[in-house]
Amino acid sequence: MKKRVVITGLGALTPIGNNVADFWKNAKEGLCGIDYIKSFDTENSKAKVAAELKNFDAKDFFDRKEVRRLDRFSHLGIIAAKEAYHDAGLNNAEIDRERLGVVIGTGVGGILTTIEETTKLMNGGMNMVSPLFVPKSIPNILAGNISIALNAKGMSNTIITACAAGTSAIGEAFRILQYGDADIIISGGSEACITPLMLAGFTNLNALSLTNEPKRASIPFDNERDGFVMGEGAGILILEELTHALKRNAKIYGEVVGYGSSCDAYHLISPAPKGEGGARAMKLAMKNARISPEDISYINAHGTSTPSNDQSETEAIKAIFKEHAYKIPISSTKSMIGHLLGASGGVEAIACVKSLEENYIHPTIGYKVKDEKCDLDYTINVGRRIDLNYILSNSFGFGGHNASIVLKKWAC
Q1: Among candidates 315, 248, 288, which has minimal Cα distance to 408?
Q2: Topology agreement, domain 5-247 and domain 259-406
Q3: In this structure, are residues 349 and 235 in contact, taking their beta carbons and an 8 Å threshold?
Q4: Per-residue pLDDT for 412 more than 90?
Q5: CATH topology of domain 5-247
Q6: Boundaries of every domain in the chain
Q7: Which 8-state DSSP code applies to residue 230?
Q8: What pLDDT, on the 0 to 100 scale, is given for residue 243?
Q9: pTM, whole model, 2 decimals?
Q10: 114, 301, 355, 377: which sits with the fewest CB atoms below 10 Å from its CB?
């Protein structure tokens, strides 16, 4: 018998809130976290907007040595992990540290450090490169840093599946717990890559929105969408084997019941025709959860605001859900926080958990112009109170990586 897996803690740093409570409050209200980029000069960039963190300073959370020795993506991930850890009551719990694991997703890891040290190399030569370059920048280092910070001595792993990484990490952690190889896993994603290099790369790939109006930049499913908006942040969840959570009388937010993963095997950046790969991930997640499409109450879409993604995801949903697709409310968290790349799945899973807890789904904001090819219920501009039982959350990434998870309202 596979073990049941529940969610007992949440932690988040997002462009609309630096903790879970603020993030969820602002998500329900449809707050836009997108603005003109403030962290560097965009005079020579076609793309001018991003979803940066607000009122955040790593020095408020770390001493001077840690600020210097950690990349920003590690700062964000550790802060969110600590919030989730404390929220789960693990700081006062007697647990087997060798069965406390970490599975984290990221897209590009310590890219800020890589850029900084490359600049030193080019300007000053090899001797100018910091000895901390490698242990600050490698993508797996956040999982190691969280393990050190929280004394997690169990398995520690990093999932790198581009924009699907956060959801992939949660799904893989779920499976590890199902098979009894850990009691608790700290899982989710972190990303901090709003830099001139990444902005230029995505812009020249024709992937980013070039609008000069922040509130019309990330507009998933709108006919005038022209690309995604880069975001930064972290979303971490505490996943726990059910009997272990019950024994320590933990608060249970919800249950992870299904995970599906697939690859388009089609193109490096474009989705497969009609979203075939994403459709398979959704189908596998529901099969794993042993539910039918009609059981799904709400879908948190990948919803990036790129012309191809939103259309292909809509087609994938229709392919799987048939006529029922028109009865399922859908929304995109990215309309408010932009695209957090490898952290997206973690933050969006938190939104789903809070939706289950409160029977409320946040809106897809910024929507004005209907796209005839995207004709489902996208919870346009206003959130909605609705009875929820099962939620499907999608994440799709470059390379054709697809990941879907099914979360269930907690019931004994």
Answers
A1: 288
A2: yes
A3: yes
A4: no
A5: Peroxisomal Thiolase; Chain A, domain 1 (3.40.47)
A6: 5-247, 259-406
A7: B
A8: 98
A9: 0.97
A10: 377
CATH T-level fold of 259-406? Peroxisomal Thiolase; Chain A, domain 1 (3.40.47)
pLDDT > 80? residue 137:
yes
What would the pLDDT profile of 218-242 be if each residue is shown by its tens digit? 999 999 999 999 999 999 999 999 9
Mean predicted lDDT score pLDDT of the chain:
97
User: For residues 137 and 344, what is the distance between their CA atoms, to the nearest angstrom?
Assistant: 20
Contacts of 376 (CB under 8 A, 6+ apart): 221, 314, 317, 318, 325, 326, 328, 330
pLDDT at 411: 86
As given in the structure block, the two tokens for residue 370 are: 């209907």
List, by residue number, the catalytic residues: 163, 302, 339
How far apart are alpha carbons 193 and 233 in whole angstroms? 10
Q: Are 251 and 90 in contact (CB under 8 A)?
A: no
Interacting residues of 291 by C-beta distance below 8 A, sequence separation 6+: 257, 258, 390, 406
Beta bridge partners of 221: none
> What digits encode the pLDDT tens for the residues 314-347?
999 999 999 999 999 999 999 999 999 999 999 9
Q: What is the DSSP letter of 222?
A: B
Average pLDDT over residues 175-199: 98
- Are residues 271 and 277 in contact, defined by beta-carbon separation less than 8 angstroms? yes
- Alpha carbon 81 to its chain centroid, in Å, reads 14
**Structure-token pair, residue 174:** 């779920």
Share of the chain above pLDDT 70, in %: 100
* β-strand partners of 374: 371
Chain Cα centroid distance, residue 201: 21
Q: Supply 367's token pair.
A: 């929507």
* Distance from C-alpha of 106 to C-alpha of 96, rounded to nearest angstrom: 27
DSSP-derived 3-state class of residue 14 = strand
Residue 1 confidence class, pLDDT cut points 50, 70, 90:
confident
